[in-house]
Write a structure and sequence with these properties.
Two copies of one chain form a homodimer.
Chain A: E1 2-6, H1 14-28, E2 31-36, H2 38-47, E3 55-59, H3 70-73, H4 80-89, E4 95-98, H5 102-113, E5 123-128, E6 135-138, H6 148-164, E7 172-176, H7 187-198, E8 202-207, E9 219-221, H8 224-249, H9 253-261, H10 263-273, E10 281-284, E11 290-292, H11 299-314, H12 317-331
Helix pairs in contact in A: 1-11, 4-5, 6-7, 6-12
């Protein structure tokens, strides 16, 4: 098992990436190809006294910045992202992990690996905490302007991931909508609702924004524009509630004291909702395994992202997706012929 | 000042509506036409010993249920909603307040009052709490499938409301998007972004979901599908955080005790985020003043909804909107001629 790790992508530089790789090698026996500027990486290897033979540096001269335009990055062949992507393409690695520019990750893997048959656009599957288990959100922001057919594909790919990787038998699928009733929705979701009812997926109907936290669905499907809005709203709202509690508590010494007593609870809750526990968002629909780790990943988040990548490979996720896609194509009517599926790059 | 109050609309029946009307009459000297089944309402008037001449019952034989199809309700001329709407149309009342079926409120007012010149679809303006003042969300769910031109109109109408009713000078406008950068967005929002830059509105660029809580924008504009998802996500997330804190705290007696000490803070926060303080969501773009009160309105929420309705009338909100619409039409290119603005009913 060899995973290519774009070590230059995260906000905090290569250190947490290398530390996470070391943990993954020790705990899960994963061989990690640590991709980035060799001299730079070597410094960290020396400082951390790394001698584990399962960690190997692969040199890449260039680095993709968070602000770089995704389409512009695909022309640069020596970025750590491009080199890591190529390692998978050439069979030298089994999967890719990056905490860098999401659009660039999608653009590079799309161009190098292409998509699975029938897939026009891949999707990002994000995990959100709920009162029960986590809920998967597909697409969490890879694509805007999706057709109904594509949202159905996202639902299918999310189902395969939930079933095979997250071990949820018969995952319950929801379609993100402005109401639970079948007659609610915009033109695209109304069509997607009808299509989903034709499939073998365990479609439980329309879901509202708040259902992501109820645990009543294993996954909720939507286009990436709405998915991004949901994700950012949830992050912003949770941060708001905590800040507002602090603001209110500060108005009385007694309440401030009570608030301090609650810190262990807040910490436990933080752990429960933290991204470092689940390790990153898989990019589903490309012909290979790519895990997008959070930009602010710490070593634990990197370790978990590498673990998830290795699990996806061991479980033959790409083959499973290919099988289910073929099945789906038989179940639902294909897209209108004047709009055939093609591989396209994300616009932003 | 006379406000028509659909007293049959709320989840809890006419009692909180009547109590709220009594408060509004006493505190703000508002004359309230309480619309609903006379015998039914008279019982509450007797029970509450109401003799205030500013409260007047107007009989309506029929009631719109929350589950009724909006388009079906417009054929029923004797519902409390239809009668209240007609009172405004005929000049017997200055504004309308209802806590009932939102789609039916939109459909009834649209058909009876029509829209303001140039407006195809009205929007609902919802208030969300932020770390500073509340943020206005337009459209919060009245319309799905909006064109760029319509989202710009929502932004303009929200600006007028924020400026004149909420007293925010030069309201800061955000456009809900999947990223702050101008190149982010779907086809519709990219076009709306360009249009907004041509207007006199204080457009501060794209906003992300979380920005609704930052207080950096006075209002955020979007189509009603995304607006509904944002609203429901925020409600669901806040409820989730509180429940999860409770769940965690229950795991230790000490933490449960600390949690109990925090109750006053939680109550203050609840008050700060409660809908009963701001009184309801104005429906902007119809040719009249309609305030949608929350389905779960208590007497205070009704009182505030009636106060807001009377303020909108006193401030000539409809005239102000008409003026700004004319100005907007000069600033931005009109919609393509093969798709002229027409009055249409919401589909669901």
């Amino acid at each position: 098992m060899r995973i290519a790790l774009d070590a230059m992508g995260g906000d905090a530089g290569p250190r947490p990436a290398i530390e996470g790789a070391l943990l993954a090698a020790k705990l899960y026996n994963i061989h990690v190809l640590v991709v980035g500027k060799e001299r730079h990486l070597q410094k960290y290897f020396s400082a951390l006294n790394i001698t584990d033979p399962r960690l190997e540096i692969v040199h890449a001269d260039d680095v993709v910045k968070m602000t770089d335009s995704p389409t512009e990055t695909i022309r640069r062949k020596q970025t750590s992202l491009a080199v890591a992507t190529r390692l998978v393409k050439e069979g030298k690695a089994d999967a890719l992990v990056s905490a860098g520019n999401t659009g660039a990750l999608i653009a590079n893997t799309l161009l190098s690996w292409r998509t699975l048959p029938g897939i026009k656009k891949p999707c990002l599957a994000a995990f959100l905490p709920s009162l029960k288990a986590h809920t998967l959100l597909v697409d969490a922001g890879a694509n805007v302007d999706c057709k109904a057919h594509q949202i159905v594909q996202f639902a299918m790919m999310g189902s395969v991931y939930a079933r095979d990787v997250l071990k949820r038998p018969n995952p319950r699928v929801g379609l993100l909508c402005n109401g639970h009733e079948d007659n609610k929705g915009n033109e695209v979701t109304k069509e997607a609702n009808k299509m989903l009812r034709q499939t073998h997926l365990n479609f439980e109907g329309n879901a509202e924004g708040g259902d992501i936290f109820s645990g009543d669905f294993d996954l909720i499907a939507c286009d990436g524009f709405v998915g991004n809005v949901l994700l950012k709203t949830a992050e912003g709202c949770a941060a708001f509630v905590f800040k507002a509690i602090k603001q209110e508590a500060k108005k009385s010494i007694f309440q401030t004291f009570a608030g301090l007593l609650m810190i262990p609870t807040a910490k436990k809750l933080k752990k429960r909702t933290d991204y470092d526990e689940y390790g990153g968002a898989p990019l589903l629909g490309v012909n290979g395994i790519a895990i997008k780790a959070h930009g602010r990943s710490n070593k634990k988040a990197y370790m978990n992202a590498l673990r998830v990548a290795s699990e996806c490979h061991e479980l033959n996720l790409v083959d499973r997706l290919r099988e289910e896609l073929a099945r789906l194509e038989e179940e639902i009517e294909p897209e209108s012929p004047h709009n055939p599926p093609t591989t396209s790059l994300p616009e932003n």
